[in-house]
Design goal:
Layout: H1 2-27, H2 31-39, H3 49-74, H4 82-98, H5 103-126, H6 131-150, H7 152-155, E1 161-162, H8 173-194, H9 196-206, H10 208-213, H11 218-244, E2 246-247, H12 254-267, H13 273-288, H14 296-310, H15 314-327
Antiparallel strand pairs: 1-2
Length: 342
Amino acid sequence: MNGRRDVGVTAASALRVRAWGAARAWGAAGTPSILLLLALPVLPALGGRYAQGVLTDLGQLVLAALGLSFLKGRAGVLCLGQSGFLAVGAYAYALCAGCGVPPLLAAAIAVAASGAVALAISPAVVKNPTDGAALATLALVVVVQSLVTGLRGVTGGASGMRNVPPLLAVPGAAAFLPWAAVVAGMLFLRWFSATATGRAIRAGRDDPRAAARCGVNVRAGRRLALVICAMFGGLAGAMTGASFGFISPDMFDIALAIALLVMVVGGGEGVLAGPLLGAAFIYFLPDIVRASRDFQTLLNGALLLLVTQYCPGGMAGMLSAAARRVLGRRTRSAPEKGGWSP
């Protein structure tokens, strides 16, 4: 009788610990998500058409970079094909919405289509998460671009597709929706990373052999992380088509894939604020250095080399170190590279 009571108490305690851990994960979603949540009602009223356009573009970039940051920071998978997932989402949304499917349902189909494509290429990605994954995802961008360019009767070819319906026919919705998705994505990723599955994915990244000996299916974890990353990209692609009302193959080229990777590495991979910092810096970089956007790819490549060599923690790591110096007190060390923290 006492043994049963002890087992019941232990089980109840374990459930309380799990519930507390989940609540803590949701509650500690990070300062970036809290600030964005407070700013959401103000976004549609900010500035004129130019300011709303900047917010729309930036929100879509942050959303795509957020998924890529999770894949690289949590699972350790190098992906050069996020722009391919954006293209799949954008064209899936445009085709479905153009056929009369309700826009929100079309966006859900676009997200599912990107996830399905990621699942299809996952065998080549999960086996080798570095070189093999980079080549497989880079090939995805080339294949998707070739398909949407060649299928002129369906996708409009190089001329693209026009008159793509908006997600919501409400003034300011194009600027509001990407940031709402960013906040929801931050909360989801923070919660998911605290679950048993999220911890197993990280264990597979830290030491695949040791994790496999403990019963962790490392390849399944990488596959799930890839699908999550692709779904973030698919949603960003659908919002891109809905906000512009037009899509074309050159909007989702290899240069965009490299730019998204630079946003993740430059901002700080595995940190919630990293994609936000990196996307903002890359977006405004040509204006900062007074350079033409024709040199954007060159600037992105140079920045990637500099950050990798001299500042592996990215902008988030630099700001964290500067804050510790200014405060003049010892705090806990900066997040381990590849972790997932506020």
